[in-house]
Write a structure and sequence with these properties.
The chain is an alpha+beta fold. It contains 5 helices and 9 strands.
């Protein structure tokens, strides 16, 4: 049995809870048009709409991204994240998602059930495009490789390899490569249910 796509998971959860697209739109603040594109066309949106959709459905973000459920500790061995790409965002206009473009989110410990944090290894290509996002919760970022620019509210900070930042996600923010090289980060996202 094939792993369901993100859109199929959202549609399945909606149907299980008898939530129409219109109801989900009202609950989440995400347009019916975007929900339709995610479910029917396989569109992968940026993180902020996914968080809003998960909250509108009353589930954790991980519920939309999980493949398995594990009650005990989950170990993610070095190199395993390459096979666990959950979604890609920030693609430049006209780019296909199968190339080295945008931001690739590789989940860590995705098999852990009942978790409250979403840890990812994120590769940010220099051509990644995104708007500032805002959502409830907190984020922690550790720069593993490269130089990252963080726009947080009206502030702009540069983080180098080994630097980290912890911030409230409710403030409009975005991260991107500070130069023409890709950046690899550890990002831990907490969103209250």
């Amino acid at each position: 049995m094939a792993t369901p796509t993100l859109g199929e998971r959202i549609a399945e959860i909606r149907k299980t809870y008898s939530i129409s697209r219109e109801d989900l739109s009202e609950r989440s603040g995400v347009s019916v048009d975007l929900i339709t594109k995610i479910e029917d066309d396989g569109l992968i949106p940026d993180l902020a709409p996914l968080i809003k959709i998960s909250r509108g459905l009353g589930v954790r973000l991980g519920t939309l991204l999980d493949d398995h459920k594990q009650l005990g500790p989950v170990i993610c061995r070095a190199g395993d994240t390459v096979a666990s790409t959950r979604f890609k965002t920030g693609l430049p206009e006209g780019a296909v998602s199968s190339g080295h473009h945008g931001m690739s989110f590789n989940a860590l410990a995705s098999d852990k059930t009942g978790r409250h944090m979403e840890p990812f290894i994120v590769t940010i290509q220099a051509d990644a495009k995104q708007d500032k996002s805002t959502h409830e919760g907190e984020e922690f970022i550790y720069v593993m490789e490269g130089t990252l620019t963080l726009e947080y509210g009206t502030d702009k900070e540069t983080l180098n390899t080994g630097d980290c930042v912890y911030y409230d996600s409710i403030v409009p923010h975005k991260v991107f490569s500070a130069n023409s090289d890709p950046v690899k980060i550890l990002a831990v996202i907490y969103t209250p249910v």
